[in-house]
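pls read this protein.

:::
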Amino acid sequence: MTIEIIAFTDPVCTWCWGTEPVLRALQTRYGDQVHISYVMGGLVKDIRQFRDAGNAIGGDPASSNRNIVAHWLDASQRHGMPVKAAGFKLFTDDHPSTYPLNEAYLAARQQGEDLSNAFLRRLREASAAEARQTNRIEVLAEVAAEAGLDTGMFLTAMRDGSAATAFQQDLAITAAHGVRGFPAFIVKGQAEKGLMLPGYQTYGAFREVISLVSQGTAVETTLPKDASSVVELIRRWGSVTDIEITTALDLTDEEWGGLERQVTADPSVAMVPAGNGRFFRSLAPMAGTCDPATAVCAV
């Protein structure tokens, strides 16, 4: 039986970014028993009409940017994912919305779920850890290329209305389930309806719900707590953070500290600073073939 996890999200939501370690740990430990899909919920239609009184976000784009960074940095201290404050300027009067990022994910999904999920991850990195203005179409095209998408197909989907139509469908799904904040999750086993989990959830909370909806049949496995397992994770995901490593392998900070030197000594791994954190990125070459007649390379 496959456990379906439906994640309601927005690419720039900080607690959605903070959930990445948990979702990756679920995929690492449960493998094909868990399938995660995404519904775009559209966090900010227009920052000038948006109001988050608790974090003083909304209204003027410039002051909102300052307060967003403060909120993200505070959240980062709790969820552990990196945030770059220097140079952050997501919202302007010309670009007041996160809706283009939501549509971009759905444009990417036309090229397949794996590619669109890689794009969503890269989009979160670019927004949170690189302070890029990811609601601009030219930046979205750059990120699409970085994630391995066909940029021409991506831009066509962004401009022909198909991505916008798909986003409206996602907004309708979000509303139908009464989701008003992100992240939110539906976890489904054999029951058709599934269980709704609103807000950020720990790995332990997901483990309990998965056991419940699978009636105890889902089997959790763990990788050995060694440097080889860490390198395997980095190669699988391409780019991981400290908290993603410790969550996936159930490592204490001390255990990870003891393995870190071995991991960074591996020539296939690069450590890249990112705001108030860092990424460990794979330098391992990808196997592939290139056809000189068609000028197309495949992996």
In short: The two ends are 30 Å apart (CA to CA). The beta strands are 3-9, 34-40, 184-188, 195-198, 239-240, 269-274, 277-282, 289-291, 296-298. Confidence is low (pLDDT under 50) at residues 286-299. Residues 36 and 156 are 26 Å apart (CA to CA).
